[in-house]
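User: Quick sanity check before I run a bigger batch. Here is a single chain. Can you write out its predicted 3D structure?
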Amino acid sequence: MTSHVAPLNRIRVGSAPDSWGVWFPDDPRQVPWRRFLDEVADAGYEWIELGPYGYLPSDPAVLAAETGRRGLKVSAGTVFTGLHHGPAVWDETWAQVSRIAALTEAMGARHLVVIPSFWRDDKTGKVLEDSVLTAQQWRDLTRQTERLGREVRERYGLEIVVHPHADTHIDGAENVARFLDATDPGLVSLCLDTGHYAYCGGDSVKLIETYGERIGYLHLKQVDPEVLAGVVAEGVPFGPAVARGVMCEPPGGVPALEPVLAAAQALGIELFAIVEQDMYPCPPEKPFPIAERTRRFLRSCGV
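Assistant: Done. Predicted structure follows.
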């Protein structure tokens, strides 16, 4: 007797350069971009994100040809921002956002993933600023994010989705709720990364059920609870935590993805669910078998 899984027909699954250990535009320890495109298609994915700007070709004609012949389409671009620093950083922020948004739009994508800046260095762990924002910084963060949402939509036709992330000021349940409550739902949606949210102690299903109308995009990821316990106990920064294997291959970690996907399907909207398994740095032969197995697992979940 075979078990039948109801198809989650509103959820479109993809993967990203991150799942191939790609964190930087150029790094000798990362797989070359052509290999990433070949392998992500061979693993059974149709949708990809752009990853760090400059890793994939930034000429839309070249990128369209390279993705098109592999049957791939782009779901989103990604930007890093420090908007809690207020209007003073707007021009610098917009300079990089506009470049990435233009490529994202040219590739037919509709979303721009916005990641807040880190309060401690991703590689060295050096503390760059206080991990807690002041009331004024919260006001700047929320107002400038709304401005970003408005400008990106008006100029490029894209929706921003803000990505709660470990070692940033928008991380676990308390800060995510504060951020959502202080921003306009018409301008700012969330990219819920199930791994980062669990890493920071959050419950993805509860977030989807509580703030469903704010969920605009998903990143599918799991954490290894044992590795995470050590990371938390020792105060290990995110970069070294990834090198320890804190993000693990599903279905071996938390949160369980089946209930997350079911909760997302119940929202009744079209959603991208992009697999991201942080593993920088990693041997070049490591990502592809994991990507294949993960795609098989997600099919077994109905997507």
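The longest strand covers residues 73-81.

User: Great, the batch can go ahead then.
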